[in-house]
Design goal:
Largest sheet: 11 strands, mixed
Distance between the termini: 28 Å
Strand content: 15-25%
Strand order of the largest sheet: 12-11-10-9-8-7-4-13-14-15-16
Number of helices: 15
Number of strands: 16
Structural class: alpha/beta
Amino acid sequence: MLHKFIFDGTRIVLDVHSGAVHEVDELAWDLLDGYGQVTEVELIERTRGRYDPVDVAETLEEIKELEQCGLLFSPDPYQGKYTPSNEIVTKALCLHLAHSCNLSCRYCFAGQGRFGGGDQLMPLEIGRAAIDFLIERSGNRKHLEIDFFGGEPLLNFEVLKELVYYGIQRASERGKVFKFTVTTNALLLNREVSQFLNEHEINVVLSLDGRQEVHDRMRPIPGGAGSYERVVSRIKSFVGSQHNRNYIIRGTYTRHNLDFCNDVLHMADLGFKHLSVEPVVAPEGAPYAIRQEDLPAVLAEYEQLTRELLRRREAGEPIDFFHFNIDLEGGPCLPKRLTGCGAGYEYLAVAPNGDLYPCHQFVGRSNYLMGNVLEGRVRPDLVEAFRQAHIYNKEGCAGCWAKFYCSGGCHANAEAANGSIYRPHEQGCSLARKRLECALYLKVKESRQD
C-alpha cells in the first residue's frame, strides 16, 4: 500500500507497511500510478513523448530495486496474523485527584471538572489503593506511569505530594520506577508547588489556548473574567524554573479560532517551545464545535502551521509541536502501533471514589464503569472489548494508509460520535491524516538539510 501526496510542490510517497518515505520526481510519481497493475511495456508507452525513454527505464529499475528491498509495495506483515497478547498488564493510571475546578471552561467535556457529579477530592487512602492496584497488575513491567488529572488536580496538592512519596516508596520496594505527570490550568502554580514538581522531575501539561482573546473566551474564571494574564504569568515563571524541560503547553482550538496557527505562534513568541493544540471535544451542535464544513479550513490551517514551523526552524528558532513529531526509524512498539493508547486494559482512569474507567474521557459513563481499586479487579468483558479494539478489528482501519500512526484513533471520541469503540470518529481520522502528511513533509525537508 502506497500513500502519495504533494505538499508545496514536494512529491512524497509513503510505503505504508514498511514505513519507508520517499521524495520522488514527477517521472517516478507517474510511473508508480500504474506500476504492478499494467505491463512494463504499457507503462513505457504511457510516458512516450513526455519523458526520455532512458530516464523511464532507469526509474523503473530503481522502483524494482526498492520493491525487492521491501521499501515499496511491501505487504502488510500483520494482516490476519496479529492477536493481542493474552497477558493483561496495566502500565498506567490516570488519578482524578479533583472533580472540581477553579476555572469555568465553556468547552469542558467534564462539566467544569465534575464529570456529571458534585465537587469531590480524592482521599489519600483511595490514591494509595490505586498505586497498589497498579503495582499488582503490572506484572514484570518495571516502568509505570501515574497521571494526576482533574478537574484541577492542584486543588488536592497535599494528597498529590503524599502519593508521590508513597509511589516512590512502593516502587523501591517492588523494583519498579514511576513516572509522574500532572495536567494543570496553572492558576495554582506557586513557588512551593513548582519547587516540588521540579524536585521530583514530574512532567507537567499546562493548559493555555493561545492569544488572550481566544483563551479568555473559552477559559474564564467563575464569574466570567478572563484567566489569560494570571495563567501566562504563572506558566512563564514555572517554565523558567524548568529550564525548558519536562513540560508541554497544551491548547484547545474550537470553531471560534480556526486560525489556530496564530495561537501556536503566539505561544512560541511568549518563549514556550514544547507545544500542542488539539481540536475541541464537543457534542454535536455546540456553538464552538468544529463542524464538517469547517474541515477544509482546519486542514489548510495545519498546512499553514507546517510552513511557519519550517520557516522558524530554518531561522534557528525551532518549535517542538507535539502532533508533528514522528519517529520513522524507531517509532512506537508493535502493540502501540496497532492498538494505540491501551485504554481499558493497559491504561485506566480512577475517579475520586476509586471507580475505574477505561480512560479519563469515559469517567462518569456508567456503562463503562469497570470496577473499583478497593476491589482489586476489573470487568473482564470490558477489558476484552478494549483489548480487541485494534486496527484489524476497527471499521475501515485496515485499509487506511495512516493506520500504523494513528492506531485507530481515540476510543472515547469514537464511542461518543458513533456509539462504538470499533467505529472511528471520521472527523478525527481526517485530522490525523492531515497531521501525518504535515509531519512527513517536515521530515523530508529535514532530511534535505542533513
